[in-house]
Write a structure and sequence with these properties.
Blueprint (H helix, E strand, L loop, with lengths): L1 H23 L10 E10 L2 E2 L4 E6 L4 E5 L5 E7 L1 E8 L5 E2 L8 E2 L17 E5 L3 E3 L2 E3 L2
Parallel strand pairs: 1-10, 1-11
Antiparallel strand pairs: 1-2, 1-5, 3-4, 3-6, 6-9, 7-8
Length: 140
């Protein structure tokens, strides 16, 4: 049991540091990308989304994410250039069928599943220097 916990701890650390490298870029990886401000409002069928995250996946570099506020607005600093956009808004975590007792997986998407993945959302933005307004209008 103790060995299992240690392996899980090491696994968690490896995932943590891997994500940190991806989000910040590798050391000595060249010049830092220029960033710009993106803000807007997220709606689903005309109603503001009251929670979740907007994820900007730059086609060549770091991703950025912003929390969606209760009124549907968001604001983030993201790399200048072409980005694909996804919306992550999920319900409560759910038990994983066939797993050990107490193992939980991500909750069900509360927006149409296509919007949850940047490659299928159909949402893109060419981020320009300065301030960018980008309202996201999703449909069921």
């Amino acid at each position: 049991m103790l060995q299992q916990r240690v392996r899980l701890s090491w696994g968690c650390w490896i995932v943590f540091f891997g994500c940190a490298l991806v989000m910040t870029g590798c050391p000595g990886g060249g010049a830092k990308r220029e960033t710009a401000t993106i803000s807007g409002k997220v709606t689903l069928d005309g109603k503001p989304l009251n929670a979740g995250r907007v994820i900007f996946a730059h086609v060549e570099g770091p991703a950025a994410a912003a929390d969606i506020q209760p009124d549907g607005t968001y604001k983030v600093e993201a790399a200048v250039g072409m980005t694909r956009v996804a919306i992550d808004h999920r319900g409560a975590p759910e038990a994983v069928p066939g797993s050990r007792e107490g193992m939980m997986g991500p909750g069900k998407s509360l927006v149409p599943e296509k919007y949850a993945v940047a490659d299928t959302s159909g949402l893109t933005l060419d981020v320009k220097s300065g301030k960018n307004d980008f309202n996201i209008e999703m449909k069921q």
